[in-house]
Amino acid sequence: MISVESKKFKKSLIIGILVVTIALIVGLSIGLALTQNSINNNFSKANQLLTKFPLIDGHNDIPSMVRKNFKNQFKLFDFNDLTKIKDELLGTNGVTHTDIMRLQKGKIGGQFWAAYASCESLAKDATRIHLEQLDMMKRLINKFPDVMKYADNSIDLVKAFNEGKIASLIGLESGHAIDSSLAILRMFYALGVRYMTLTHNCNVPWATNNLVDRLSNASAYGGLTQFGRKVISEMNRLGMMVDLSHVSHQTMLDALEESKAPVIFSHSSVYALCNHTRNVRDDVLLKLKENNGIIMINLYNGFIKPNNEVPTMDDIIAHFNYVKNLIGVDYIGIGADFDGVSSTPPDVEDVSKYPKLFAALRENKWTEKELAQIASQNIIRVLNENEIFAKSQEHLEPIDDIIDQKDLGDLYSECRTSF
Q1: CA geometry: angle at 383 spanning 353 and 336, to 5°?
Q2: C-alpha dihedral over 187, 192, 195, 200, to 10 degrees?
Q3: Do residues 373 and 323 touch, judged by C-beta distance below 8 A?
Q4: pLDDT means per 10 residues in the chain (419 residues)?
Q5: Catalytic center residues
Q6: What values do phi and psi take at 357, rounded to 5?
Q7: What is the CA radius of gyration of the chain?
Q8: Which pTM was predicted?
């Protein structure tokens, strides 16, 4: 027989359990609500920030995507919304990351569009392909005058943003575009190119690429040749930014030693967090600070997280935090590499998701001033400092040195009739 005291105890226990359960449910609900409010607030603040300050991405490969899928023929696609035909597209796993609709949703204020030709074109038709990419990109910009505006200097970049348009600048992704000719380099500058990546994933006769760093005897390959150093000097004289994404570790060091103007990594991430040879080591980051340059963080899965793992937003933020803690926020930007990579993080899968990235950075205690810096102020500073240095060099004659024909090798001699 159960005593009266026992019944009272059980009743009290049940009531106690119910009270605790209800408190936990209420507390959890309040916590979830507060978390959701925080997320919503950060997202709203991120959108406000990117309305106030232009987001300038350092590297987008839409020219390559258009060439690969449409042979640069505008009648074959509608750049307003490419999601309608994404299953028909080739290249980035059948998906393009960029179109007008998503650029606007992503609050893009400026974009460096990358003209690119594969390493198969080296010493063959690389120059022609790059020229056709420039032509295609300028036509695309002109096709959407209410949305995009061509810019080739820091002043026009800011003016375009203030007009509510996407400032559109052009970079060369591959140094083999100039066919080892300083004259061709100058002509690309005259056509509006404002940075050149010294190599892609192949050596040029005057610089080595990142793949040599995977070899046991990487040091034997060197970095910049003497002609390569002249390329850097001529780029400085012109005001064309030196881009060190894709190059070897030694080429990075040599270029940082040679360049008198700030250099860029237009689309690279942190080697210490993901040990891919395309990423940037600590010793180079420290020299980048001395140079006053910038690393623009790449969002390709394989440069954020090793071993084919899918990166989370925390993994992405870790790259920004690492550089910030090592050398400071003044040297960080964003160069996502959209439309040039095969996989992107679920949280930032295309150009429309930049506000989500900035909301996450804000959640990680990045201030508005710091976010404005990585959005655009740092890259505008670097571009402007290159312009200022070029202005100081106006009294100098163009460098008209010719590369030593021995450095070209048989591959180049097959397609040349003279120096």
Answers
A1: 25
A2: -60
A3: no
A4: 56 61 58 60 95 96 93 95 78 72 98 97 96 98 98 98 98 97 98 98 98 96 98 98 98 98 98 98 98 98 96 98 98 97 94 98 97 98 98 98 90 79
A5: 59, 61, 173, 200, 246, 267, 337
A6: -65, -45
A7: 25
A8: 0.90
